[in-house]
Each structure stands twice: as C-alpha cells, then as structure tokens.
Amino acid sequence: MKQPIRAFALGLLSAVFVLGVSYYIEGKPTETKQSNAEMPASEMVNKLEAEGYVVKTLDEIQTEQSKDDEQAGPADEEDEEKTEEQEGKTPASIDLQIKPGMNTEEIIDTLYKAGIVEDRQSFTDYLTDQNYSTAIQTGEFHIEEDMSYQEIAETITR
C-alpha cells in the first residue's frame, strides 16, 4: 500500500516542479501589451479596419435601415394586396396528384391549401371513421370545391 501512495506523491511533486519551472522561465505575462478594455475606441476601429472588418456607427446603421424600410415599403403593400386577392378567390376545382409514399396528412394539407377542405381534423376523422384512410389510391384525381367529404373520399379511393 505504501508503494502506490509514494508513486502518486512523487507524481504530484514532479508536476508541481515542472509547472514552477515553466512559470519561472516564461515569467509573468508582459504588461506592455494593452488589453482591449484599455484600448481607446479609435485604436480599436483602426485595428479592426486593418484586419478587413467594416466598422459602422449606430447612426450609420439606423440610416441604412430607414432607407431599406422606405424602399421595401411599397413592395410589401403590393404583396399584401395580392395575398388578400388570392384569399378571396378559391379554386372551383383541383387536380389532386397522389404519389406513392404520400401519407394522409399530406393529401389533406393539399386539399386544405386549395380551399377544398375547410377543417383538416374533421376530414381526417371522417377518413379514419369510414375506413377510407387505408384505401387511398395513387394517381391524379379531379376534386370539385363543392364535393362532400364522402364524394372526395370515394374519388381518391377508386
């Protein structure tokens, strides 16, 4: 039992000795270097610009942002008007493409986005309750806007 304890103590002693020698040789950190906290802002800017960074003041950034907002303003209003017009118009019918590997949720999302189905969950429940969800076929189906859930289900399960 004494041998392992002595070996461990000798290891600690030699580690302290190596660290002490390296600290003595290296010396204390030189205080001639300035830390960034002590460096004036103008020197920091010069140093950053010399390294290829772009330094802007808060006023310059705010001016650029206000210019960007002014330029983007009219385009955003036009997009909003187009979106409102599109929401008002729903397609009278859709040609639904069901590909191999598509799940029921993807199909229902497509119908919902096209304005055919008003409530995703109720259509999902209907397909499950009536056992249509496992019988959906791949292919292209023509779905009308005024079709009932039963008619849609029968169309996509043929």
Question: Can you describe this structure in just a few lines?
Answer:
This protein is mainly α.
Structure description:
By secondary structure, the protein is mainly α. The chain folds into two domains: 35-89, no CATH class; 93-156, Dna Ligase, domain 1 (2-Layer Sandwich). Helices cover 59% and strands 8% of the residues. It contains six helices and two strands, in the order αααβααβα. A two-stranded antiparallel sheet has the order 1-2. It is elongated. Mean pLDDT is 82; it is low at 82-86.
Structural class: mainly alpha
CATH topology of the largest domain: Dna Ligase, domain 1
Spell the H/E element sequence: HHHEHHEH
Task: Give the tally of structural domains.
Answer: 2
Regarding quaternary structure, what we see is single chain
Work out the number of β strands.
Answer: 2
Q: Biggest β-sheet: count, sense, barrel?
A: 2 strands, antiparallel
Radius of gyration: 36 Å
Portion of residues within helices: 55-70%
Shape: elongated
Spatial order of strands in the largest sheet: 1-2
Unreliable stretches covering 5 or more consecutive residues? 82-86
**Mean pLDDT over all positions:** 82
In percent terms, what proportion of residues is strand? 5-15%
